[in-house]
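User: Can you fold this complex?
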Amino acid sequence: MARRLLTLATFNVNGIGARLPHLLAWLAREKPDVVALQELKALDAAFPVAELEAAGYGALWQGQRSWNGVALLGRGVVPVESRRGLPGDAKDTQSRYLEAAVHGVLVAAIYAPNGNPQPGPKFDYKLRWMQRLARHARTLAGQPVPVALLGDFNVVPTDADIYDPKGWRRDALLQPEAREAYRDLLAQGWTDALHQVHGDAPVFTFWDYFRQHAERDRGLRIDHLLLNPVLAATLKDAGVHRWVRLQEKASDHAPTWARVAAPARR
DNA sequence: ATGGCTGGCGACGCCAGA
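Assistant: Here's the predicted assembly.
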């Protein structure tokens, strides 16, 4: 018997207030089952829960004034929260991690620090945050249930994942330490869904607002879907909904997705 | 080597993004 498929997606909206029309249009057209959002740039009270409910999505969110902010959406269901915030630093108040069970998959919404300028305190924070992520992700990778880390990792994994590696070589997103942190994650057993499906063919998820880079497909791959071995075994396809990035007043990121088998009900 | 564009904040210019 063929099993139902599930579409997992991650979308850095760059302001939920400014991007709600784009988000709703994308949900209506692509109907993803599980969605991680980043960069809400809004307080909890400003999260558009009613509009999302009307669109058929249950939501869980962790906002913050002006910056950061993550959320999880479930098509037809409210995600069941398992963790709010990354462990390892009680003084870190930035809203960058939210974890819940959605449609039988344990999913984390991740917004890793940008880290620019580097070197400097922001880059140090980026690396410390990635270490904390690795420590927690290790406890999730080997779980005998499907687990996915969905988010903006703010790491360009290799020079094949950017249109101009030379022009960006000093950027925090390309630094060897950042790339090593990402490789360390993968070494725990996570599968990078987009890379698994497309290999080294360039598939970008972010295009900056300058020089018509979106139209010219001069982008970076920084939004990633990492699947633990249980879930990776059911991976069917992965891609990027670039049409969203080509809309008027779009986010600088596009929704990135992976199709997997829906876990059997237990 | 730099600046280019955008959202949020809060009131015109600044910070942060990547």
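Residues 14-15, 17-19, 39, 41-42, 65-67, 114-116, 154, 156, 168, 171-173, 206, 208-211, 220, 222, 249, 251-252 of chain A lie near DNA strand B (CB under 10 Å from a C1'). The first helix of chain A runs from residue 16 to 30.
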